[in-house]
Amino acid sequence: MNDGALVLFSGGQDSATCLAWALARYERVETLAFDYGQRHAVELEVRPQLLAAMRGLDPEWARRLGDDHLLDLSVLGGVSDTALTRDAEIVMQDNGLPNTFVPGRNLLFLTLAAALAYRRGIGVLVGGMCETDYSGYPDCRNDTLQALQSALQLGMGTGVTIATPLMWLDKAATWQLAQELGGAPLVELIRTGTHTCYLGERGTLHDWGHGCGKCPACELRAKGYADYLQHA
């Protein structure tokens, strides 16, 4: 077992599953989130309760789960013109990417995470990026993250690695992974406690969780949950 991991923990389904994955594998786990002016900033509001609830699921997880960090990355929102950083309709763009794509987001996230990990003496960065069931974001691709890992290792003179446990999983398999890691209590916590909706709607609790039920993130989460229940 490696000593430590820093999990990019936004407060969503994927990052919560990744946090459980890290807690099952690493002796020391810290968490990191970014405030970049996201339209769905409610995800940042649910994080403290989620972290407290994760500690309550398993005494060993409570022992391993360490400091939480929140970094101001408002400059990213300032230079972006996307449906995640502006009140805009979600549409496909001429370049074939949805306008929910925030250019450079994951590259900046992981670079700053590596800098923080360097200071904290942590060698593994854990992120929920996935190219099996995703929205076409080029910074979620495995080859992008492998290239970034090489750049970080060269530029920082360390052996920092990027772990992406969801890279080859669809959303149904992500729900199944949560079941394997923490059983029904973890699945229920992710269902009711996390936030994924791009529009930041938190009012309605559907069978798959909170959200508008219409944005791409909600549709993907709902379909994954239905598929997971069908094969459970």
Q: Can you describe this structure in just a few lines?
A:
With 232 residues, the protein is α/β, with parallel strands linked by helices. 47% of the residues lie in helices and 13% in strands.
What can you tell me about this protein's structure?
With 232 residues, the chain is of the alpha/beta class. The protein has one domain (4-170): Rossmann fold. It is 47% helix and 13% strand. It has eight helices and seven strands, in the order E-H-E-H-H-E-H-H-E-H-E-H-E-E-H. The longest helix is centred in the C-terminal third of the chain and has 23 residues, at 171-193.
Query: Main sheet: which strands, in order across?
Result: 3-2-1-4-5
- Class of secondary structure makeup: alpha/beta
Strand content: 5-15%
Q: Would you identify the CATH H-level superfamily?
A: HUPs
SSE string, helices as H and strands as E: EHEHHEHHEHEHEEH
Query: What's the CATH first level?
Result: Alpha Beta
Task: Please specify the SSE layout and strand pairing.
Blueprint: E1 4-8, H1 13-23, E2 28-35, H2 42-57, H3 59-64, E3 65-72, H4 74-79, H5 105-120, E4 124-126, H6 142-156, E5 161-163, H7 171-193, E6 205-206, E7 209-210, H8 216-231
Parallel strand pairs: 1-2, 1-4, 2-3, 4-5
Antiparallel strand pairs: 6-7
Helix pairs in contact: 1-7, 2-7, 5-6, 7-8
Primary descriptors:
232 residues, alpha/beta, Rossmann fold, five-stranded parallel sheet, two-stranded antiparallel sheet, 47% helix
